[in-house]
């Protein structure tokens, strides 16, 4: 509520970022600045990497991006490091005139549209993961409904995904990374959970990189409790809950 009511929300975001000592991959403090600070000849990601400054427009999309920086700073920094490394490999700071490549595409999709499915380590949640990866929606969302909240939690990460949910529609689909968590995770406070997720996902990205193959589709309003009237007819809508394509 404090942030929403702030007359200058970018200033308050910067105060929060400073208080939390949020920094970019080079250790420079993150600060949210007007979009006009971004040079025309420099890619957005390279600018953040070089300066710690995040160009931020007066819109919901960039507002949510800033909130994700505050919520998952290590993961955001790691994504920025991956983008900057790809730009350097391509020999460009502008990002123009060069193909984006698979890694930059995957990082952008993760940054914009990722959700994180956190599941308890061990065998209990593996049928749920298998059902989601196999697009077996009835199995995942109906037959294994009780696992959500007890053995599995969905956390939103992508700022474009969150923006879509301001005016939700049934077909909103996230690119989802499955994260295995220890038993204790499900008894922690939300703040402790968020910090653990942030550090764990940042480490995964550092060691395994980022690729589309790591992500699986998740119609987010199919998550139990995330929409009204989640009856059999709701999940029978194959325009949203699509079967997996035959290979």
TrEMBL record:
It holds the Pfam family DUF3025. It comes from Glaciimonas soli. InterPro entries: DUF3025 (IPR021390). This is DUF3025 domain-containing protein. It comes from the Bacteria.
């Amino acid at each position: 509520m404090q942030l929403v009511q702030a007359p200058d929300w970018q200033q308050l975001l910067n105060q929060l970022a400073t208080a939390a000592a949020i920094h970019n991959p080079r250790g420079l403090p993150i600060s949210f600045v007007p979009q006009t600070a971004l040079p025309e000849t420099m890619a957005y990601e390279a600018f953040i990497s070089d300066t710690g400054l995040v160009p931020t427009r007066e819109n919901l999309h960039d507002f949510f991006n800033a909130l994700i920086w505050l919520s998952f700073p290590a993961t955001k920094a790691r994504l920025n490091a991956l983008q900057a490394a790809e730009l350097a490999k391509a020999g460009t700071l502008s990002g123009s005139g060069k193909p984006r490549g698979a890694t930059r595409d995957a990082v952008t999709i993760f940054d914009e549209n990722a959700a994180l499915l956190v599941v308890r380590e061990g065998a209990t949640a593996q049928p749920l993961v298998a059902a989601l990866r196999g697009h077996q929606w009835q199995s995942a969302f109906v037959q294994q409904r009780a696992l959500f909240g007890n053995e599995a939690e969905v956390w939103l990460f992508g700022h474009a995904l969150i923006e879509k949910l301001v005016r939700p529609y049934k077909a909103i689909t996230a690119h989802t990374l499955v994260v295995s968590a220890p038993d204790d995770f499900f008894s922690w406070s939300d703040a402790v959970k968020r910090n653990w997720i942030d550090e764990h996902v940042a480490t995964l990205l550092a060691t395994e990189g980022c690729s589309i193959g790591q992500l699986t589709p998740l119609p987010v309003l199919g998550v139990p409790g995330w929409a009204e009237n989640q009856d059999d007819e709701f999940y029978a809508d194959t325009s949203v809950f699509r079967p997996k394509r035959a290979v």
